[in-house]
User: What shape does this take?
Amino acid sequence: VQLQASGGALVQAGGSLRLSCAASGRTFSRRVMGWFRQAPGKEREFVASIHWSGTDTYYADSVMGRFTISREYAMNTVYLQMNSLKPEDTAVYYCAAGPLVTDYAGSYDYWGQGTLVTVSS
Assistant: This one.
């Protein structure tokens, strides 16, 4: 599985962005997909994940109610809709694929290159 993240941009606080992660490879449909982020000087942290069936999602408390993860099988793409953005959401966002719906980064065995989201106050 190869992953390509895109959609990062500079946005004002309170605004919205949608990140995309395009996946290639036959096993995409059976992989759990996740989003992680890493702010400058901080460790990578879990944001959201979605089961391969699309019916089971999991969010970090910090983004619950503001972010929505979804997947489109026809396009082999996973999305992260981010609303009500805050300056503390500023980070490089990475998409990842793995076998389990989990917030543990080590469980994901494929990673995209990251896309930068900057939220200005």
